[in-house]
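Hey, resending since the last one bounced:
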Amino acid sequence: MVKVKKRNGKIVDYDDSKVFRAIQLANKNSKDKRMTIAQITKVVQEVEDVFKDTRVPNVEKISDVTENILMKSQYVNTAKSYIIHRSEHKKRRDDIENIMNNFIDLTFKGDASVDSHRDNANIEAKATMGAMLKYGTDISKYFIDNYVMPEEYVQAMNEGWLHFHKSLQYAC
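The structure tokens again:
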């Protein structure tokens, strides 16, 4: 492998140290005994061997192959850690993409049919200060939901079982 295709479509130089570090971190965060540099290097080489005839593999495929190789090895808990890490990062990427899409709607779509323009009857979302308040609200909500509020409360709110008024939610 000389080049890889990133998730955003950009083609960049392949860097085996990224695969190495991902495996090393997964191993460190697992219950498995620590893999030696040689063992991690061997896994990286196995991954590279799978793609020896692939011109420009994408990073998602590389991660899938790394995951499969780890699952077939004696380092099953490392594989689990690797899978969890990938899942958490995918959730963050998806969340950021949703926030950005909301910002794009708020900024560039001027019609009242956009949900973000109808979020609060007391605020004119199309006005500059209303838009700025909406930007801050969306970012704050993401932060509170993911880093401050207990997960079970967030889930209960998302399922409609619990409601916090925004001023109370942000004070938690």
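Residues 109-169 form one domain.

Sorry for the duplicate.
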